[in-house]
Specification:
Keywords: Isomerase
Radius of gyration: 17 Å
CATH class of the largest domain: Alpha Beta
Family: Belongs to the aspartate/glutamate racemases family.
Distance between the termini: 22 Å
Enzyme class: isomerase
Number of domains: 2
Strand content: 5-15%
Helix content: 40-55%
Shape: globular
Low-confidence stretches: none
EC number: 5.1.1.13
Pfam families: Asp_Glu_race
């Protein structure tokens, strides 16, 4: 089997995991099946809801199960790990501590990617779960890059949560215009870039007939990074270097 092998903590949620796998396959410059990057996916939809626990610590904690999945992936032969969920990165440090292999950080990669394309001090709109926004974790990565962050209005945050939980997670139709409207209002409020900061929203992003130039998808950025790490390691004949 080709090395290195990517391990994916999936099921958070399941459809976003499937989209992430599709993005990885499409982004890998392969001409045959045998040239594709290998991956091990643990699609575990029984992991407790991340936002529910962040907003109310009395709700089930997803951290132990995610750490367990990470260890399983390493034991199964994964050389590095990606998590197909932004909100799950609230627990990133605990997952890193559970394994001895690198764990790619979707928030860090997104902040680095966007910082390279906007001016220092730019404002970044963040479309994400209430858990991600209230935790402040994503905002902290942008702050380290000298960028400010703006969340949607309370009304638009309600729409975002509806799109995530009542539409994508529920396998129900979603309103692309509602999604684009939130992004547009953030842009009109002064945001130089708007981040799709939830992997369920990434599912909607992939269906857009046209993508505004100010809109960046975090899952797309994560896929690029994972493919690049694979290619660099293959060319160097060594381990994953973060």
């Amino acid at each position: 089997m080709n090395k290195p092998i990517l391990g994916i903590i999936g099921g958070v949620g399941p459809l976003a995991t499937a989209y992430f796998m599709e993005a990885l396959i499409k982004k890998t410059p392969a001409r045959t099946d045998q040239e594709q990057m290998p991956m091990i996916v643990f699609n575990d939809p029984q992991i407790p809801d991340r936002t529910a626990h962040i907003l109310d610590h009395d709700k089930p904690n997803p951290q132990p199960e995610m750490a367990k999945v990470a260890r399983w992936l390493e034991d199964a032969g994964a050389d590095y790990i990606a998590i197909a969920c932004n909100t799950a990165h609230y627990f990133y440090d605990a997952i890193v501590e559970a394994v001895t292999i690198p764990v790619v950080n979707i928030m860090q990669e997104t902040a680095h990617n966007i910082a390279a394309q906007v001016s220092h001090g730019a404002t970044i709109g963040l479309m994400a779960t209430d858990g991600t926004i209230e935790s402040g974790v994503f905002q902290s990565y942008f702050e380290r890059m000298g960028l400010r962050t703006l969340a949607p209005t309370d009304e638009d945050r309600t729409i975002v949560m509806h799109l995530i939980y009542d539409c994508v997670k529920a396998n129900a139709p979603y309103d692309v215009d509602a999604f684009l409207g939130i992004a547009r209002r953030l842009h009109e409020s002064g945001c130089d870039a708007v981040v799709v900061g939830c992997t369920e929203l990434s599912v909607i992003y992939q269906d857009l007939p046209e993508r505004p130039p100010y809109l960046y998808d975090s899952l797309d950025i994560l896929a690029d990074r994972c493919v690049n790490l694979y290619q660099w390691a293959r060319q160097a004949g060594g381990d994953i270097k973060m």
